[in-house]
Amino acid sequence: MSRLRQRVFSGLAAVLLAQAWAGDAPALAPAATSSSRARARVVIVEGAGATDAFAPNLPRVRQLFDAGLTNLAGTASSAEAWATYVTAADVVGIKVLSQPGALSGTRPAVVEALVGSLLAAGHPATNIVIWDKYREDLRAAGYLTLAARLGVVAEGAVQAGYDPAVFYENTIPGELVWGDLEYQPGGESMGQKSYVTRLLTSRITRVVNVSPMLNHNLLGVSGNLFSLSLGSVDNTRRFDEDLDRLAVAVPEIYALPEVGDRVAFSVVDALVAQYRGERDSLLHYATPLNQLRFSTDPVALDVLSIAELA
Question: Does domain 2-309 have CATH number 3.40.50?
Fold first, then answer.
């Protein structure tokens, strides 16, 4: 994970990109940085008709998802591709960014395509969890309804609770709020630890991180690194409004074995790119790309998203 952390720091600043297009599923390979000679592999699948007036076309999205997954794994079938990344015994946690809503956050149609593909590969529905930090955000974006319809679980990190034995420590104090492990009404109001959700320490064994192509006013993109890092721990308000704090905390949290080491691969929901708005759905600042992007390297995905949104 230390090599990944180095890539996060340097990769977001500068990565030289080399593109190799291959039909409907082009692959992009960011060139090596000084901290890593290996090239990252990113698979981009694009298809006309994946959206109509910003609304996803589920059958087409499913086709794109399976094409991207098999291309990433280098297999002939989706079932073989899934077997590359997870076992039947794994509890697969699908991390979404639901706070911006169903139109600008991670789109439920993309997650439905992912879950449908995983179920078709024979993975038990009881071993699939759609999750984000807050259950109420999942509800508002339609994920609780989706999970019930598909027979899988949807859960919030806050509602699952935080593990007192697993945490990220930073000397910057944060004001504790309801939901934080150390929060006590009338008690200590500040904390320097961010505890990891029990979803990751006790339940989920593999993560598929699905982030939208949505701008972030400080980081450039509300991407894979940002979504998983700040969605996995409590006491994050201390980082939210300061770029320097985010630049340190995001990669350090991601580098925790219970967080980054759980990730099987990451997906960017690039059906629509929204380049302004951050937490708000502002589709007049958006453009359809009709793409899904796949990689085992979250840095490469985020760098490409930043370039797209710039």
Answer: yes
